[in-house]
Amino acid sequence: MKAILITGGGSGIGRAVALHFSAQGWRVGLADIDQRALADTAAMLPADRTSTHVMDVRDPSEWEHVLAEFTALSGGRLDVLFNNAGIAAGGAFGDMGLDALDRVIDINFRGVAYGARLAYPYLKATPGSCLLNTASASAIYGSAGLSAYSATKFAVRGLTEALDAEWSVDAIKVRDLLPGFIDTNLLSIGLAGTNRTAREAVVESGLEFTPVEVVAQAAWDAVHGDRVHSPVGKTARRLTFAARWMPGRLRRMMRSRVLLGR
User: Fold this and answer.
1) How does strand 3-7 pair with strand 27-32?
2) Where in the sequence numbering do the catalytic residues fall?
3) Using alpha carbons only, how large is the chain's radius of gyration in Å?
4) Which of 8, 52, 166, 234 could form a disulfide with 14 if both were Cys (CB 3.0 to 4.6 A apart)?
């Protein structure tokens, strides 16, 4: 039986991916710092092939413990590590507290890097394995008001590209997802220079939310396909096109949004 370990598995994208892979007969390990959310997700899945693991991705000792615990249940298999846990922090970068900045960097990138490094021996030992990282459409072009978040997601994207090359000799796939706006708790953050949340700004702009089920399908396709980066949703696909073919226009658009916010 194939096995996937999912960080941030208590809600949102992590929960949707857990449901999708479990429906295909996979063993699912749910890792999250929120024990109640873990229990809620686990209740939706078959008990005989689902496990929960409370962990903080910033702590390498917890990574070591959870990886050992999960692979003991899976018969040593780690077919996919889904490095999905992340947080957002909005507001003007110049006003951002250093503690908040550290937290975004530590969870969104340090946690991903720890997961990749410590899962490597397990992935290497599992034929056809895959490291799947959640990046963001903010890793396609930096988002004003989400500077720290964008920076960490660019770092995740860079790590994905580097490891895709480096780990090819070990037959480990490395992939990432670049989802656009997903209606999860991450969109409750405030935007720079405004009294609006990110969710309100998306609605007011007439932009679409991509259902988490679409992201889950994209995760399945990424694991089984050959594309390193997978933009998910209309916004992500438009940003990808604009960043490549209309960078000047995209830059002006980002600047105009900041000015309108003020």
Assistant:
1) parallel
2) 136, 149, 153
3) 18
4) 8
Alpha-carbon distance of 170 to 204, in angstroms, equals 47
Question: Do residues 45 and 188 touch, judged by C-beta distance below 8 A?
Answer: no
Per-residue pLDDT of 5-15, as tens digits, reads 999 999 999 99
CA dihedral 177, 109, 44, 223 (to 10 degrees): 30
Distance (Å) of CA 238 to CA 48, 187, 231, 233, 250? 42, 20, 9, 9, 10
| Contacts for 161-166: CB closer than 8 Å, 24+ residues apart | 161/228, 161/229, 163/116, 163/131, 164/228
User: Which strand (E) or helix (H) includes residue 201?
Assistant: helix 198-204
Q: Quick one: tokens of 230?
A: 């997978």
Structurally, what CATH architecture does the domain formed by 3-261 represent? 3-Layer(aba) Sandwich (3.40)
Query: What is the share, in percent, of the chain residues with pLDDT greater than 90?
Result: 68
Q: How far apart are CA 17 and CA 5, in angstroms?
A: 10
| Residue (of 231, 76, 225) closest to 139 by Cα position | 231
